Amino acid sequence: MTQVSPFTQQDNAILDRILESRRSVRSFAQDIPPKEDIMRIIRAGLLAPYAAQAVAGQDFRRFFVFQEGNPELAHVAALGKRQAKRMAEQLRDDLAANPSLEDQAQGFLKRLERLAEMGIPGIGTAPYYVVVAERRGIPPAEQQSLAHCLENMWLKATALGLGFQLVSVTAQMGQDREFCSVLGIPQGEFGTNGCAIGFPVKRPPPVERPDAREVTKWID
Length: 220
Ligand SMILES: Cc1cc2nc3c(=O)[nH]c(=O)nc-3n(C[C@H](O)[C@H](O)[C@H](O)COP(=O)(O)O)c2cc1C
Hints:
The protein is α+β, with helices and mostly antiparallel strands. The protein has helices spanning 9-21, 35-47, 52-55, 71-97, 102-118, 142-159, 170-173, 177-183, and strands at residues 61-67, 128-135, 163-166, 190-198.
């Protein structure tokens, strides 16, 4: 029996358009998007799946919105730089212990050194820096859940005409006691990740990806 979708072809065409329009935006206009739009984006993030069995019914996800101009945003921007510096130091130690990784890791090390000096793109370079905290369960699956959450938020931001940039160093910042204290969450109980949101200076063209047929093997 053929199953009937509750969604129309038009619904699907709109969803496809949003999926194809989702791009990383790394340059934001100064205008501040309305708070209602940020709340709609957060609602989309809440709708994303979470590891229900791992967190056993506890409150699983929290959102923190830092707005440009608030001193706490400057504070977390400084914590981001400190985190990049720590990661560069750690990588240098790892490379000293295992020089065979040098060729592979040199590019990333240079990037970390630049971030430690210049700051983290997305923290203080957009009207909003949004941190999402996901409860760490057993087994730990918080970063996978956060990825689902952020993708939902990204698609909603796209649908609202807003630009979105992942700020993935937020994951490492989540281990920092001072960062947890700014968020008001107990250190070690949550994983974190984050994004920057604002109006894009320029809208990037739709995504370019290989044809699905080129990357799919059917075992049927
Ligand atoms: C796990 C992960 C982490 C990422 N971290 C960052 C980041 O910290 N900053 C950033 O600007 N983009 C980040 N990106 C975005 C990718 O660079 C981007 O999605 C990719 O270049 C494809 O471009 P598109 O998003 O415009 O399609 C990340 C993407 C993934 C999947």
